[in-house]
């Protein structure tokens, strides 16, 4: 079923990133330069990022996320998944694209935590 399992009511938590509280609150309307979003610093070794840990192992095939769209900035990104936070598999790679606003990302079904 289509359900957002990256929600606090299902035990999901943000364990990496800055301003974590806004990421899983479900509010996609009320955000500005001071609140309502999550971010991460950009470093040379690409070790920092935003990390969400699901409440339980789940089969995923779709991620929907909102990138900042209140100005003309665009972003490049990739998404990796893991079961143990040690071995990571890249499921989305938009590192060579300029992206903004809503991202509807579909991929081969995969068990993730």
UniProtKB/TrEMBL annotation:
* Superkingdom, taxonomy of origin: Eukaryota
Concerning InterPro entries, the annotation shows: BTB_POZ_domain_cont_9, Galactose-bd-like_sf
One GO BP on record is: modulation of chemical synaptic transmission
Q: Cellular component terms, GO, for this chain's entry?
A: cytoplasm
Full protein name: F5/8 type C domain-containing protein
Organism whose genome encodes this protein: Chiloscyllium punctatum
Q: Which Gene3D superfamilies match?
A: Galactose-binding domain-like
């Amino acid at each position: 079923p289509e359900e957002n399992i990256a929600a606090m009511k299902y035990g999901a938590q943000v364990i990496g990133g800055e301003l974590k509280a806004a990421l899983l609150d479900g509010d996609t309307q009320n955000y500005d330069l001071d609140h309502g979003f999550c971010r991460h610093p950009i470093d040379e070794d690409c070790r920092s990022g935003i990390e969400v840990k699901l409440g339980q192992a789940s089969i995923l095939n779709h991620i929907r996320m909102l990138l900042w769209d209140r100005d003309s900035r665009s972003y490049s990104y990739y998404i990796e998944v893991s079961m143990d936070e040690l071995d990571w598999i890249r499921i989305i790679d938009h590192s060579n694209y300029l992206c903004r606003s809503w991202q509807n990302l579909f991929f081969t079904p995969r068990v993730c935590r």
